[in-house]
Each structure stands twice: as C-alpha cells, then as structure tokens.
Amino acid sequence: MFSRKALSRGAQLAARQQGCSKLAQRRGYAAAAASSSAPSSFTYDTSDVAGVKVAARDSHGPTTKLAVVAKAGTRYQPAPGLTVGLEEFAFKNTEKRSALRITREAELLGGQLTAYHTREALVLEARFLRDDIPYFIELLAEVITQTRYTTHEFLEDVDRVIHLKQGKFAGDVSALALDAAHTVAFHKGLGASLYPTPSVNYKSYTNEHSIADYAATVYAKSNIALVGDGASTNALSRWTEQFFKNVPTSSKGSATLNTEATTYYGGEQRIAHSGGNSVIIAFPGSSFGTFTPEIAVLVALLGGQPNVKWSPGFTLLSKANAATPGAISTASNLAYSDAGLLAIQIKGAAARSVGSHAKEAVQALKSIAEGAVSKEDLTKAIAKAKFDALEASQSGVSALLNAGSGIIHSGKPFQVVETVKSIDGVTADKLKTTAKSLIDGKASVAAVGDLYMLPYAAELGLKILNPISEPTQASVKMAFAWKAAGLTYNRYLAVASRVVRRCLKEEQRILAERRGESDLRFAKWSNGKMGEPKNLADANAAAASEAASSGSSS
After folding, report:
1. Which residues are CB-neighbours of 302 under 8 A, at least 6 positions away?
2. Residue 551 lies in a domain
C-alpha cells in the first residue's frame, strides 16, 4: 500500500474523488434499499387459520419470536386481580405437562418463556431457535387450553407473587404516578390499575375458580391473535392449524368483559409518599385506531433523552434536564386501541427540583404552542419521530404486542410504513395548532411524593376537569343525648357516674374471674361477722363438701 507522501497531488485528488463517488454511490444504494425494503421488512402477512387470526413477518434470521396476544388486559377484567392472576398461571401445570417438564424442555431447546400484561392485552411469548417452531406452537396452544388452575398453586405461587408485585408497585413512585394519571384521565377501563392496590381486598374477587372462569372467557379464537416474528407464513399456518384446532371458537366462561368505549375526562390526583417524588402531566394523545402524526413529532421535540451522551441534544426537556439537575423529565405517547395519552413524566429525589421541572415542561409546551420552534429543530424532530417508530416496530417487546393488539381490535396489524409517511407531512403550523389545543384543553396531573413541595395543576397553569379544593373546617353541631332525653345536666351527671362505677366494678369482677379469684362474701352472718373474702374456687369446693356432708347426715 502506498503512503500518502508517495502519491502526487493529482493522484491524491483522483483518489479522493474516487472515494467520494463510491461513498455517494453507497449512500444511494442505502437510500434505495431503505425505500424498497421497508415495506417487506416491516409489514406483517395476516391470515385466518382455523379461525385463529395469524400474523407473520419473516426476517430470515436464526431465531423466532412467537406470542399469543389475548384481549385480556386490566381494562377488560371484570374484577381486580384476574389479569395478573391469569398471567401468573401461565406455563405452569397443564393436563399433559408439569411446570418442571415445561421448564426443562424449554431450557434443553434454548428457548425463553415469558408472560406479561398491559392495560389492554395479556401476552404469552416464546423465543427460540427457528427450527423448534412446532414444539413451541404446541406448547402455547396447550397453555391456553389445558392449564390446570389448582388451589395449591394459587395459594403457594400465584397469590404470593401477586403480593410481591403489589409491594414493588406500591414502592415505585413513577409507576404510581402514571397509574394515577390514567385513573383521572380515563376513570374506568384504561384507568384501572395495572396491579391491585393494597387497599383493595382482591381475594374477595380473585381465586383459582374465578381465574379459571376468566381464562375460559378470554382464551377463545375470537379474542386472541398469534403473532410470529422470524417465522415463515407457511410454517406458522401449518402448525397453527394442527395445534390450535382445540381452542374454543367463542368464550366458554361466565365472566363478562368490560368493553365500554374509552372517554377522556382529565383531572388531578395527589398521593403522599416517602419513597421519592414524581409528577405526571398528561394530555389526550394518539391511538392506534386514529394515529396523529403531530403527536409523534411533538413527543420527539419534547424528548428528554439526548442522542449523544456528551451533549444535551436539541429536545426541550433534555435541555431542562441538563440545566436543572436533581430530576429527569421525559415525554412519551402511550397508545391504545381507541385512546392515547401524551405523558410528560418527571421523577427525582428532591421535590423542589421535580416541581421546577414540571413548570419548565409546561413552559416548553407553551413555547411550541406559540410557534417558537426553529425550522432546524422541527426537521430534527420529524427525523427522530420516524426513527423511533421504525425502531419500535423492528424489534423489542412492543413489536409483537402492537401487531397482535391491532389484529384483535381492528382486524389488521399496526403498519409502521403508513405511520412514517404521515409523519413526513407534519408542518410547523400543524404542530403549533396541536400544542395549543393541548394547552387549552383538559390536562391530567398526578403528583406522588412530598405534597408540600410538589405543585398543583393550577400552579402550573393547566386546566383540569375538577380542581382539587382544600378541605375547609366546617362548623360542627353536636346533638347531646341527655337533652333529647329531657334530663337536666346534673341528673345526667349522676346517671353517668353511676353507670361508670358499675362498669368499673364489672370489669374488676371479670378480671378476677379470669385469675380464678373473686371477692366472695356470704350473705349470712357468722359469729356476728360477715364472711371474709375467699378464693372463688376454694369457696365452691367448701360449699360442695358442706352440702355433701349435710346430705349424708340427713
């Protein structure tokens, strides 16, 4: 290889031009490949196999991800604890296999089995090598149709794990704040808690029998979808038809799912907590059913996480994080089938810093509503929104979940290609209008932590449905019983003192009987004196012997 000094200036220029042309050519190939391969690599092929809705996307890799997505999230459960209880029963004893056998077989094949739930879905997921797809399809079908909901497993495993998750959830101020924001935003349905709160006695609703009935209701062909990533459509359809034929066509259980349409309300909730501080500022967001590209760009512009670790980045919240340490602010859009929640999440150890971040977040949103966004920042936000959408659909937990939820609710999976095209059409005026509608509308605010320092929604300049009013001390009118009985006050004191003395004597007598002793005085006189106090047991024994002797003598 020749050194740079050995080349003439002309040769150097020629080599430089050749390198630039090759780089431009590679960029052109990359752009063409991206535009041509995006639909095939991000689009799911859907089909109906034996009544089961199936979606497959073949990435031609060595591993496969397979998931059964059921319409059984906390939004639909008729009683608290059923969804998490059904989740904990997954991959335990079935009619054919024990939990130990399932675990050992999965480990021998190098597979991973997980179960989790969201507000709308319950997901049973398996990750494995591509050639092992028949076994894991059979296992998933067996889990949803032949799981044994036994009493000992509920008492020893399921109930114990629910208690642990309850405690973990109750100690996480960020999770509590987000849960409270959903409650004030949607009330029931999507507003239901992800886990039963400690104040709710879920055992009065949830046991092995109610969970089995809930499983019979949600594990039906009309209520589930099978999604495969890294599997061919032919292989997935072939084994699904063989092993999912025993899944009921319709619900067999007696439980009634909560299927009411979601309504956004807004409001404020404050929870005292000693484990940290968190504030959630939320607005109506973008849903899967009606995707709003302006919301995606708005979330990308607010951001919170820098793209490069040594720079705060261009997003408004990341600049606030760098300027005010002690708290972290991030923005995200929580999308559901018929509703969405644009949430700004703020957490930190210092309540004063969390409150300052909350005010800065509202000011950042107001600046967008006023049109104070440069053209360069808008271009960056659009590019970031497109990247976030493509990355979420390419890999991760949300890929299978979003595809399965889309099939269950709308009959087709969420297609990211259409989303990216709509994001390109966002302009500065559209973004300004969207931000202004959020500021002028009803917000959902939740604060968890030191309530003395954390701000109210009114202090942040936000509008809510029902502002929290400070409780005022009302005048109390006492109704005295002795007046109603027609007694004088002196007569009332005399009666009350007599009752108190009688109660005290009665209490002493009861305590003495518990010790086996009592001040027993005989009614008759003996030698001119009243009987001395004696032990109750001894007096009874003496009386019994005296009665026996007098009876024998007579």
Report:
1. 315, 316, 317, 331, 344, 361, 364, 365, 368
2. no
Token code pair at residue 368: 């967008």
State which residues form the domain around 487: 481-541
Same domain, 311 and 409: yes
Total number of domains in the chain: 3
**Are residues 459 and 537 located together in one domain of the fold?**
no
Residue that has been written with the tokens 């409150």 in this structure: 355
Q: Mean pLDDT for each consecutive 10-residue tract of the chain (554 residues)?
A: 46 49 44 42 83 90 94 94 95 95 96 96 96 96 96 93 91 95 94 88 88 95 93 92 92 89 94 94 92 95 87 90 91 94 96 95 95 93 92 76 87 79 92 95 95 94 65 42 62 74 65 55 45 59 72 59
Q: 278 and 256: one domain?
A: no
Q: In whole angstroms, give the CA distance from residue 486 to residue 489.
A: 10
Residues 271 and 402 in one domain: yes
Handedness of CA 406, 50, 71, 157 (dihedral sign): negative
Q: What does the block give as tokens for 322?
A: 């760098």
pLDDT of amino acid 97: 95
Burial 58-67 (b: 16+ CB within 10 A, else e): beeeebbbbb
In a domain, 552, yes or no: no
* Separation CA 320–CA 442 (nearest Å): 24
- Long-range Cβ contacts of 156-159 (<8 Å, 24+ apart): 157/88, 157/92, 158/85, 158/88, 158/89, 158/208, 158/211, 159/203
The pLDDT, as a whole number, for residue 479 is 47
Domain boundary among 260, 295, 310: 260
Task: State how far the Cα of 120 lies from the Cα of 375, in Å rounded to an integer.
Answer: 38
pLDDT in the model for residue 28: 43
Across 91-217, where does the E strand assignment appear?
112-117, 122-129
State the pTM of this model.
0.76
- 232: in domain: yes
DSSP string for residues in 211-228: HHHHHHHHSSGGGEEEEE
How far is 76 from 490, CA to CA, in rounded Å? Answer: 63
Of 469, 502, 519, the domain-final residue: 469
Instruction: Say whether both 109 and 256 belong to one domain.
Output: yes
d(CA 198, CA 173): 14
Residues 165 and 58 in one domain: yes
> CA–CA separation, 350 vs 173, rounded Å?
13
- Give the DSSP per-residue string, 421-446: HHHTT--HHHHHHHHHHHHHSB-EEE
Nearest-5° angle of CA 389, CA 395, CA 401? 80
The token pair at 250 is 């319709």
- Does residue 295 contact residue 342 with C-beta atoms inside 8 Å? yes
For residue 142, give the CATH number of its domain: 3.30.830.10
AA identity, residue 192: A
Q: Are residues 465 and 316 in the same domain?
A: yes
Regarding whether 203 and 107 lie in a shared domain, the answer is: yes
**Can you tell me the distance from the alpha carbon of 408 to that of 72, in angstroms, rounded to the nearest whole number?**
11
